[in-house]
Amino acid sequence: MSVTVRVPAKVNVQLAVGAARPDGFHDLANVFLAVGLYDEVTVTPADGLRITCEGPDADQVPLDRTNLAARAAIALAGRRGIEPDVHVHIAKDIPVAGGMAGGSADGAGALLACDALWGTGASRAELLEICAELGSDVPFSLVGGAALGVGRGERLTALETGGTFHWVFAMAGRGLSTPAVFREFDRLARGRDIPEPVASAELLEALAKGDAEALARAVSNDLQPAALSLFPELARTLEAGRAAGALATLVSGSGPTTAFLTRDAESARKVAAALRTSGTCRTVRTAAGPVPGATVLRGDRPSGG
User: Fold this and answer.
1) Measured between alpha carbons, how far is 172 from 74 in angstroms, rounded to an integer?
2) β-strand pairing of 86-91 with 26-45
3) Do the Cβ atoms of 292 and 34 come closer than 8 Å?
4) Per the residue annotation, which of 10, 27, 106, 222 is the catalytic one?
5) CA dist 137 to 36, 132, 133, 238, Å?
6) Active site includes 10?
7) What's the whole-model pTM score?
């Protein structure tokens, strides 16, 4: 018997970052949108905990207990007083180290899959509590749709969306470390007053109306200058997408994936084609959102998160 969960990538349509806190984290106002690029996480009973991975850049995914999928299995098993004897297989399609929460998605996917496999009967509140312990982006990977995350980004409020937004994502030739990007943010911010992070009212209204042009005027990412400082070549990718007609261009999260909001699916295809021939990125994908969060595809439960 096995259980398979599909879990989406995310793009940050707004990432407002506050000053570093005494614990080293930053307060955030993080507006997430789940988009249709997916990892699939399959769990099967085993003699011990084992992680395997396939797909693009799978060789970059840790297969030990530092993997968020492994940590999710350990966390749930620990709460139930059982051993995490499970084989977790990850089929990757979300970019690795790309700022689209691929690792967080795997953590949420493994948590939901193990809950179904073991019949632990965890409530949604308990699953979200475990997700928050695992990492700032993991709760949203479970929930999906659109949401505002505050605190470290783990405290979520669902947001209304009035339509579908079409995106192009350009994957870079190398990864960027999220902690390194935050350290660079702190370095660039030294000596400046950093305002409290708040969600943009204009952005939330654009999401609620499904207005891509209004959303394009409101998107922002406070980590983008730090990502560009560490990876200056990304500026060429952003300019190529802008020249191809994207409504808005931004670094996704901590990067290095770059995101391009377009007017519709046809515009997304045109921007993607231009980026593929631009020589500024490794691969290009199109996706639309919002989409649901972690969802059981096969196994004990007919539906999931």
Assistant:
1) 32
2) antiparallel
3) yes
4) 10
5) 17, 8, 10, 24
6) yes
7) 0.92
